[in-house]
Amino acid sequence: MKKEERISRYDLVIIGAGAAGLAAATYASRHQKGLSILVLEKEKLPGRKLSAAGNGKCNLTNTAFGADCYHSHNSRWVTKWAASHSYTEILRFFEESGILLYEKNGYVYPVSNQGKQVTGLLFEECREGGVRFLFQARVTSIEPPGKEKHGRYHISADTPGGETLSFLSENVIICTGGRAAPALGGCVYGYGLAEQLGLKIQPCYPVLAPIYVDDARLGIAKGTRVDAAVSLRLQNRDVIRETGQVQFNTDCLSGIVIMNLSSYVERKLYCGKDSLSLDVLPEITWDRLRAILDSRQESFPSMTVMDAMNGLLPVSLNAYILDRVKLPGETKLIQLTEKHKNRLTSAIKKLVFTPVENGQYDKAQATGGGIVLEEINEKTSEAHRHPGLYVCGEVLDVDGKCGGYNLTFALLTGIQAASNIISR
Ligand SMILES: Cc1cc2nc3c(=O)[nH]c(=O)nc-3n(C[C@H](O)[C@H](O)[C@H](O)COP(=O)(O)OP(=O)(O)OC[C@H]3O[C@@H](n4cnc5c(N)ncnc54)[C@H](O)[C@@H]3O)c2cc1C
């Protein structure tokens, strides 16, 4: 009895001071004065991923926002959720925080181009609004309300000093993020808390990550960046095709287009098969490229094939392609047979790779899988079987493409949870 009296009570406890947690705390404190709100964060600082987002420039949202920008095992939920939201809610939310935004090709950033400032301003607004923050407090358990808990959730958190803190709250928001980027706070804790409450979890995998490929020679092209048409293929058919800049690394390919496709690759359908194909000269047709090789051969018979290719693509990529087709770079054009020229043209227009399963979260920007959406009301973020318990952001089974969609999801689900709590 004595012990329970020392437990602090709140109207709302938010677990995680990331994008979703800060949005929820800001919205709730802005729109309902006097609400007692506590944010528990295991790191020393709030919003580490928000601050680092978009290479520090913080791509907050996108004018192309819609259900088709997201992946989930429950696309119906995402469709319904996206239909009742717009990216303009994000614009309004930040405008009210005094954070000016600008748009470039649909991508929306803060005018300061600094994610750190966005985090800092939301944090300050929360503190001005009376929100209490406890850092280095890792939540270890959430017990649903029972008679002895006065109808409130009981939340326990550990501190680095080995202390266990306890809180009672009518409402709890779990917004603990996903497993991506552990160096920025990515972790598994949220899934454990959800499991304690009986919520189901869809197995997780890293997304928006490089695609690792089975090719020991790839390092020859290391550092090359090239605009390419990239397809994921199954049974000789392009299933997905996107164009953008691809970077070659020692054991993987990266770049926005690759990161977007990584979500499909990690779903394992494409791993271990020759399923990733790059056209590294997409603006030139196969026939035209073949004709260019013919004409170079005719005009410059003693030119090396490497020199001829240097007019088309970066040097290191040419070296890699020639290695793949087993043609020494010093071969004179006059020595090329029809078969050589066909093989070279095909290698440039259809550079095929076998993606390998990687499963590492350190270079990923988001997490696929997570708490299943069937558990959550798409209009309020509230768990169906736990009134007063909300789940928001990346810990849910939703991942967005590159372009501001993951922050949009975290911010909007956080805002809708806060809006539901204050409207009760
Ligand atoms: C390098 C990088 C760049 C990115 N760039 C962009 C971008 O430009 N645009 C975009 O839309 N998305 C971007 N993303 C993705 C985006 O940042 C995340 O999807 C988003 O931050 C998720 O928000 P969240 O609130 O759900 O989780 P997070 O922002 O990860 O916040 C979760 C918080 O919960 C805390 N926490 C976890 N467990 C506990 C616990 N048990 N107790 C207490 N605290 C806990 C964590 O420490 C963390 O602070 C990027 C991600 C990375 C890694």
Description:
31% of the residues lie in helices and 25% in strands. The chain folds into two domains: 7-207 and 362-422, FAD/NAD(P)-binding domain (3-Layer(bba) Sandwich); 210-359, Orthogonal Bundle (Helicase, Ruva Protein, domain 3), CATH 1.10.8.260. The two termini are 30 Å apart. Strand 14 and strand 15 form a beta hairpin. Helix 2 (19-31) runs parallel beside helix 6 (115-128) and helix 9 crosses helix 12. Strands 1, 2, 7, 8, 9, 10 and 19 form a seven-stranded mixed beta sheet that branches. Strands 12-15-14-13-16-17 form a six-stranded antiparallel beta sheet. It contains 13 helices and 20 strands. The protein has helices at 2-5, 19-31, 48-52, 75-83, 88-96, 115-128, 189-196, 256-265, 286-299, 305-310, 315-324, 338-349, 405-422; strands at 8-15, 37-41, 61-62, 70-71, 101-104, 107-110, 132-135, 138-143, 153-158, 164-174, 201-207, 211-212, 225-234, 237-248, 252-254, 276-279, 351-353, 366-371, 389-391, 399-400. The protein has 424 residues and is an alpha+beta fold. The site of flavin-adenine dinucleotide has 39 residues, from helix 2, strand 2, helix 3, strand 8 and helix 7.
Describe the secondary-structure layout.
Blueprint (H helix, E strand, L loop, with lengths): L1 H4 L2 E8 L3 H13 L5 E5 L6 H5 L8 E2 L7 E2 L3 H9 L4 H9 L4 E4 L2 E4 L4 H14 L3 E4 L2 E6 L9 E6 L5 E11 L14 H8 L4 E7 L3 E2 L12 E10 L2 E12 L3 E3 L1 H10 L10 E4 L6 H14 L5 H6 L4 H10 L13 H12 L1 E3 L12 E6 L17 E3 L7 E2 L4 H18 L2
Helix pairs in contact: 2-6, 2-13, 9-12
The protein binds flavin-adenine dinucleotide.
The site of flavin-adenine dinucleotide has 39 residues, from α2, β2, α3, β8 and α7.
